């Protein structure tokens, strides 16, 4: 799913956008601040976002609060069941930050199908296209 998102965001027709990948456990507040938009991906573990993504927001939230308002974001979730809590958590965090949803959330249950991967590609392309110069 991640590779499909990155492929969409890196489409040659999208110009002037640099795609930077960062694992949630190592992304720094400075890297969040330097980005113009975001695509977040997380497994829905026990009906909630991964501990890694929660940690990324926990250590950066207040630094991002006013500085990133209005930035576009997208979200993709993968779980076997019960992804609603994870989606609700990200919605709450991004609403608090004032981010703008660039596209509908992609939710995948079980093994990703070709259609799921295409939706991930579209998600990456949509967020990146909104950042074109």
TrEMBL record:
Start and end residues of each NADPH-dependent FMN reductase-like domain: 33-104
Gene3D superfamilies tied to this protein: 3.40.50.360
InterPro entries, sorted: Flavoprotein-like_sf (IPR029039), FMN_Rdtase-like_dom (IPR005025)
Protein known as: Flavodoxin family protein
Organism whose genome encodes this protein: Williamsia deligens
């Amino acid at each position: 799913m991640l590779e499909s998102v990155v492929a969409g965001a890196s489409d040659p027709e999208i110009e002037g956008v640099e795609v930077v990948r960062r694992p949630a456990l190592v992304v720094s507040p400075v890297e969040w601040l330097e980005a113009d938009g975001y695509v977040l991906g997380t497994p829905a573990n026990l009906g909630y976002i991964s501990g890694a993504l929660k940690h990324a927001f926990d250590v950066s939230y207040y630094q991002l609060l006013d500085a990133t308002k209005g930035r576009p974001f997208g979200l993709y979730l993968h779980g076997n069941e019960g992804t609603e809590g994870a989606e609700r958590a990200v919605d709450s965090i991004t609403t608090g930050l004032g981010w703008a949803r660039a596209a509908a959330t992609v939710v995948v249950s079980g093994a990703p199908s070709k259609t799921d991967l295409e939706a991930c590609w579209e998600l990456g392309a949509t967020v990146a296209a909104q950042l074109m110069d």
